[in-house]
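When time allows, look over one protein, given below as sequence and tokens. The question is which stretches look regular and which look disordered:
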Amino acid sequence: NDEPAMTATFTAMVSGGFDLNLLVLDFPRNDRCSDADWWPTVRAFAAALKANAARGAVVASLAENLPETHAEELLRQGIVPLHGIVEAFDAAEAAAFIGKVWARPSPSPVAAGRPPLRHASRDTSSPLDGEASRAEPETERGPTSPDEAEAKALLRSAGLAVPRGARAASAEEAAAAAERLGFPVALKALGVAHKSELGAVRLALKSAQDVRAAAQALLPLGSGLHVERMVEGGVAELIVGVTRDALFGPVMTVGSGGVLVELLKDSATLLLPAAREDVEAALQSLRLYPLLTGYRGRQKADMAAAVDAILAISRFVLERAGRIEELDVNPLIVCAEGKGAWIADALLVTRE
């Protein structure tokens, strides 16, 4: 019952710069005995907290050991009353989470959804033009999907990291385009949604002869060919998908990409617009993340470029939110540090 000694003891405890200092203290029942000897402890704790500008809580191991009148007195002294050991840790965890969120800059409001457009028989505007001002209600023809060559040209024109490529209608045109782009190249059949499943992709072609042979095999599968400079040195593959939600507008999914995307089911969802730290946190939540950071001595991925690419994709969609129905980038190939992150395949669905 030595209040000065307890004050010195608690001062040593709460002077450590902790975010929260917990003192377990169970009061007796007032109808059985006096609790007068418990209050010097409370006063000593309160004095130590005040002297060190520290935060503190008194924790009763059982709820009935901290009556409501005592809780009110603790609050008056700036001490938080907590009922139960497990409950105290739950409360501290929740407070830490809330504090961390409050400490971050306020996010931008999410992009608003828009009501469905009215269908019409024709619309001559470009699918990605700005919203035209009309006296009559806006109308639409429904979703359309430009092929990969056109989609990538749109992305590249907007400044996104897309490998140089060219459209070809014949094996000779494909070979000539490959010569201009430089080997190795990738060759794809256009107009095919799931290319890998149908064998509509040829990778790492190193000569014009290889391109001609691959082109002959791919031409019957689609509506043309797309020749593209091969992305080399990939460390990991991501998928970045954006769909339009009726309530929230564009919603982005980031996850493990490539041909195993459906099998891995490793993803995180972001409302747009997203801040850089939101994208970084989404990547860190993936099971794939250790691979990006140099798992077991492997090369580290260019994380800055990956985040830049994801933010650029989100800006591309937000600037055209009224016209883009869906955008799937799979894979976004993330190369080693300093080598960038590249959009290797893209599926775009627009609403005219």
Notes: The two ends are 80 Å apart (CA to CA).
